Amino acid sequence: MWDRIQREWQCNWKLILDTFTESYHVFALHGASVGPDYPGHVMIYDEFGPHLRIPVPRASILEFDHRPQEEWDLLAHATVQYHLAPNTMVNHTIDHFILWRFEPVGADRTVAEMTMYTPEPRAAHDANGEWAKSMEAWFDLHDAITRDEDYPESERIQRVLGSGRVPTTVLGRNEGAVQHFHRAVRAAVGG
């Protein structure tokens, strides 16, 4: 384990997890941070019972167009997300994993925990070395994006939904993974 952080948010855990199962928000919400690193809204996913695998390609994946398939290296050009139903996401990049767990503590409150795993623990590295600096930068980036962008937006959505002014919501065809997630939750609770 590299590091772990935990915070409470004023929103339902499913709202937070929804953002991990769709990619169209990246351009609007993360336009000044990581949005430019991603090429488009196209999203594919694989279902495994109630679980999901969601590869999220970076713009560099467009290089595959000019390379034979045997040279393709997905992890060098994408983050692969795994949703482990009901409340866990694992993001795998080329050199680390991020584990997110969302613990509901009320209908509109969630404890979100982010843990970063690396091949070797932090203690095995010189704090001033390049590897440690790189891993610390990755941890800080993941934390900043969720802390400053994703989760506050989920809180805003929770306030709107809690106001009663939005009687229903509709999930579109571009939200297949979100739909799968909600079907799996309903099935798990007998709904």
UniProtKB/TrEMBL annotation:
Transmembrane region(s): none
Requisite cofactors: Fe cation
Classification via Pfam families: Ring_hydroxyl_A (PF00848)
Sequence ranges assigned to domain Aromatic-ring-hydroxylating dioxygenase alpha subunit C-terminal in this UniProt record: 6-190
GO MF annotation, one: 2 iron, 2 sulfur cluster binding
Signal peptide start-end: none
Protein name (record): Unannotated protein
